[in-house]
Amino acid sequence: MQSKDIGNIVRQARKNQHLTQQALAAAADVSTRFVHDLERGKATVELGLTLRVLASLGIEVSLLAAEVVEGREQ
Questions:
Q1: Which of 8, 30, 38, 66 is the most buried (most CB within 10 A)?
Q2: Would the CA dihedral through 68, 60, 47, 5 be positive or negative?
Q3: Is the C-alpha dihedral spanning 73, 47, 60, 7 positive or negative?
Q4: pLDDT tens across 28-59, in order?
Q5: pLDDT category, 14, cuts 50, 70, 90?
Q6: Kindly report the CA angle at 55 between 45 and 34, in degrees rounded to 5?
Q7: Tell me, what CATH number does 17's domain have?
Q8: Rg of the Cα trace of the chain?
Q9: How many domains would you assign to the chain?
Q10: Is the pLDDT of residue 11 over 70?
């Protein structure tokens, strides 16, 4: 998944919930500029803030490391 894909998911979820970028930014306690950059797929956005925005939209993120998939978790 690339940053543009995440941006598209955020934009669609925001619109589905009838939120403006300003309202989402306020709910996630981030700047409107950050939401704008995130939706545009800017690759340098901060992961922690991105996760905060996703949580504000009710989007759960799960990551699966290659080591776990291959049974090498120690």
A1: 38
A2: positive
A3: negative
A4: 999 999 999 999 999 888 889 999 999 999 99
A5: very high
A6: 30
A7: 1.10.260.40
A8: 14
A9: 1
A10: yes
